């Protein structure tokens, strides 16, 4: 256990980044059913934010627009998303989730939660309480990072 005197925030930040990145990758592999992590992030973003332009999705996911267009075509062929004309710009289209896409993203989350439950279930009550206390801190860090990206 780390004492306040030996706290090294650089090490904590490094360890947290590595652990959260690894968890995200492993959950994506366990729950993703062969779809890319980017595909799941796009579906999640569409659920959270509603219809979006392909270019905006590309920027959000940090991929080239042609890469995002290809992904949207695959998701559209799988009937997970649909495109319609952007009422504000006839040259662009808006991508939105289909009902099937909504069910898929919910299934993905459920599978990921079940993977976590299987690991957490072996923890002692004290360890589970420690994790529960950390969740609000992680949410706060996420909000700070998001605010910095928006600003």
TrEMBL record:
- Indicate the segments annotated as coiled coil, or none if absent: none
Q: Tell me the Pfam families matching this sequence.
A: MarR
The family database entries (InterPro entries) matched by this protein are listed as: HTH-type_Bedaq_tolerance, HTH_MarR-typ, WH-like_DNA-bd_sf, WH_DNA-bd_sf
Q: Which SUPFAM superfamilies does UniProt cross-reference here?
A: Winged helix' DNA-binding domain
Please, which domain of life does this record's source organism belong to?
Answer: Bacteria
* PROSITE patterns per record: HTH_MARR_2
Chain ranges of the HTH marR-type domain = 1-143
Please list the GO terms describing molecular function. Answer: DNA-binding transcription factor activity
| Name of this protein | MarR family transcriptional regulator
User: Which species?
Assistant: Glutamicibacter ectropisis
